[in-house]
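TICKET: design request
STATUS: open
ATTACHED STRUCTURE:
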């Protein structure tokens, strides 16, 4: 993924901020899962616990979808 960006520097030339296009921001936000609702995050946490505990009854067989 290539992101166009502009660096904002302070008076010493140290980068302080970055400006990126909104579309690139939204793609990054989605890739990182930052756009998920609280409900979706809770469901993912529950699924992770089921997986860690070996609770196979919590999952749906792909053939039934």
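STATUS: resolved
RESOLUTION: sequence designed for all positions
ATTACHED SEQUENCE:
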């Amino acid at each position: 993924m290539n992101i166009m960006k502009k660096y904002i520097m302070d008076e010493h030339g140290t980068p302080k901020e970055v400006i990126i296009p909104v579309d690139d921001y939204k793609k990054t936000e989605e890739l990182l899962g930052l756009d998920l609702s609280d409900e979706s995050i809770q469901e993912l946490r529950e699924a992770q616990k089921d997986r860690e505990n070996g609770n196979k009854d919590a999952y749906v067989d792909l053939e039934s979808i």
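CLOSING REMARK: Helices lie at 22-31, 38-52. The chain has one domain: 6-55.
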